[in-house]
C-alpha cells in the first residue's frame, strides 16, 4: 500500500483493517490470478513431468522465444549479443554460446534491460545478498505464470489455493507499530487467507498465535520458516495438541534448517515442502514428494559453472529478461541420468550450497533473517547505491550506506523507523553514510554481517 492509504490503515480499528486488507487482497488477486494464470495452471496439469524428451523440447522452445523477445525489446541485449548468430542457438547446449551476464552488469545497466514502460509493469524492488538494490519490471503474464507454477506445486501436495483456507506467515507490515493488542493477524477474505505477521512471531507471543491458529483451523500453511518454526517450538515444548491438521506446510524465502523442518512437522503433524525464491523470475525450484529439489524446465534453465556457481535463465522474466545470469548462489546439479524416485524427469538440484542463513538479533524480539533487512532497505532502493547491516553488540545495529544523488537526510530517519519496526525500541541504531562500504573477506559484499554470534 502507498503512504497515504498506509496512514489511514494504521489509524483504523482492527475490523476496518481487515476490510482494507481484503480490498487490497482483491486488487492483488485480480492481477495475480487472471485468465493467464488459470490457462497456465491447466497447461501445467496437462504436461507430463515424467516425459523427459517432451520437457526438453518445450524448454528449448521457451528459451528461443525469450531470447528473440529480449533482443527485439531490450536495448541491453541488442548491444550484448551484437555479432552473435542467434539463429544458431537452438538447444540448451547452444545457450553456452551466449555470454554470461554478471551481477554488476545487471546492476549498472538495469534500466536498459526493461522491455516495457514502468507504468505498464508490476514493479518489484529487491536488495540482493550483496546489498545492492535492483528494480525489476514484471509483466502481468510473468506474474500470473509465476503464481501458476507456485500453485501447481502446492496442488501436487494436496493444497488448492483460493479454494482452501490458508494461513500465511508474511513479512508485510500490516500490524501498525503503535498497536498494543496481541492481535497479529489480518484477514484477506478475497483469497480465503489469514495473514500472520512474522515480526511478532517470537517466544513471548507464540501462545497468542497458536491459540488463534487453532480457532482458525487452516487447510494449509505457508510462508517464512523462521516464524513458523518459533510457533512449532512452542507447541512442542508445551505439548499442545492442535485441534486441526493442515494438509501441508509450504516454506519459502528463507533457508529451512533440518531442525526447523523436524520441529514444524512434529508440531503440526503435517509434511513440510520447501521452495526457493532467490531472484525475481528465476526458474521455479521446489521439493517433490520424495524430498528432492527439482527445477521445472518449463520455468527456465539452470546451469552451473565448474565452481558450482549458478547461472539462470528465467522464462518468467519478459519484463526484465534474465538470460544466463550468474546469481552469486552456489549449486550442485545432479547428473542428468539420475531419475528421482518420485517419477519426475525434472532435473534435481543437490542442496543449494551456501553459508548459514545471515541474521541479526533484537534484544527483546528474537532473530531476524537477511530477508527483513532486504525488505527494509528496498524501500530506499532508488536513493542508495549499496547498503549493509551489521551487528557487533547485542543492543546495537550498524548501518552503512553508499548514497546515490537523490538521498536526503529525511531518509536516514525513515531507515531508523524501519529498524525500530523490526528490532524494537530497546536497541541503538547507528546509520552512517560512507564513501565506500569496505568489502568483506574474498572481496565480497554482504547485506548482513553478524559479529555477535
Ligand atoms: Zn522427485
Automatic annotation (TrEMBL):
Q: Which InterPro entries match?
A: ANL_N_sf, CapK_Type1_Caps_Biosynth
Q: Which UniProt keywords apply?
A: Ligase
In alphabetical order, the GO MF annotations are: ligase activity
Matching entries from PANTHER family are given as: CAPSULAR POLYSACCHARIDE BIOSYNTHESIS PROTEIN
Q: What is this protein called?
A: Phenylacetate--CoA ligase family protein
Amino acid at each position: 500500500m502507498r503512504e497515504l492509504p498506509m496512514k489511514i490503515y494504521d489509524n483504523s480499528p482492527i475490523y476496518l483493517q481487515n476490510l482494507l486488507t481484503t480490498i487490497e487482497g482483491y486488487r492483488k488477486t485480480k492481477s495475480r490470478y487472471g485468465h493467464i494464470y488459470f490457462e497456465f495452471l491447466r497447461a501445467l496439469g496437462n504436461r507430463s513431468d515424467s516425459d523427459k524428451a517432451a520437457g526438453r523440447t518445450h524448454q528449448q522452445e521457451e528459451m528461443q522465444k525469450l531470447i528473440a523477445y529480449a533482443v527485439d525489446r531490450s536495448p541491453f541485449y541488442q548491444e550484448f549479443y551484437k555479432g552473435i548468430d542467434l539463429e544458431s542457438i537452438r538447444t540448451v547446449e547452444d545457450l553456452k554460446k551466449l555470454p554470461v551476464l554478471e551481477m554488476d552488469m545487471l546492476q549498472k545497466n538495469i534500466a536498459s534491460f526493461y522491455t516495457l514502460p514502468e507504468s505498464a509493469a508490476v514493479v518489484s524492488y529487491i536488495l540482493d545478498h550483496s546489498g545492492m538494490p535492483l528494480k525489476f519490471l514484471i509483466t502481468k503474464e510473468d506474474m500470473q505464470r509465476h503464481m501458476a507454477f507456485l500453485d501447481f506445486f502446492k496442488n501436487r501436495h494436496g493444497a488448492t489455493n483460493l479454494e482452501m483456507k490458508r494461513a500465511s506467515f508474511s513479512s508485510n507490515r500490516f500490524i501498525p507499530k503503535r498497536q498494543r493488542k496481541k492481535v497479529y493477524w489480518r484477514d484477506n477474505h478475497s483469497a480465503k487467507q489469514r495473514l500472520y505477521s512474522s515480526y511478532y512471531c517470537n517466544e513471548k507471543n507464540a501462545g497468542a498465535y497458536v491459540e488463534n491458529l487453532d480457532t482458525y483451523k487452516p487447510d494449509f500453511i505457508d510462508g517464512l520458516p523462521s516464524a513458523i518454526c518459533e510457533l512449532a517450538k512452542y507447541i512442542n515444548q508445551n505439548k499442545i495438541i492442535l485441534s486441526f491438521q493442515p494438509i501441508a506446510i509450504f516454506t519459502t524465502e528463507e533457508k529451512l534448517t533440518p531442525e526447523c523442518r523436524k520441529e514444524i512437522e512434529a508440531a503440526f503433524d503435517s509434511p513440510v515442502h520447501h521452495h526457493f525464491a532467490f531472484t525475481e523470475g528465476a526458474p521455479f525450484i521446489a521439493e517433490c514428494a520424495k524430498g528432492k529439489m527439482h527445477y521445472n524446465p518449463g520455468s527456465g534453465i539452470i546451469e552451473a559453472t565448474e565452481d558450482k556457481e549458478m547461472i539462470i535463465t528465467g522464462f518468467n522474466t519478459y519484463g526484465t529478461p534474465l538470460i544466463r545470469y550468474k546469481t552469486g548462489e552456489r549449486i550442485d546439479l545432479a547428473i542428468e541420468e539420475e531419475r528421482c524416485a518420485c517419477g519426475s524427469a525434472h532435473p534435481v538440484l543437490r542442496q543449494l550450497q551456501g553459508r548459514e542463513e545471515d541474521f541479526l538479533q533484537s534484544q527483546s524480539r528474537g532473530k531476524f533473517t537477511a530477508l527483513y533487512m532486504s525488505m527494509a532497505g528496498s524501500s530506499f532502493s532508488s536513493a542508495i547505491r549499496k547498503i549493509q547491516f551489521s551487528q557487533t553488540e547485542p543492543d546495537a545495529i550498524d548501518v552503512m550506506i553508499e548514497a546515490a544523488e537523490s538521498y536526503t537526510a529525511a531518509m536516514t530517519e525513515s531507515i531508523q523507523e524501519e529498524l525500530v519496526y523490526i528490532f524494537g525500541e530497546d536497541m541503538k541504531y547507528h546509520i552512517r553514510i560512507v564513501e565506500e562500504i569496505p568489502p568483506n573477506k574474498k572481496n565480497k559484499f554482504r547485506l548482513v554481517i553478524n559479529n555477535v554470534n
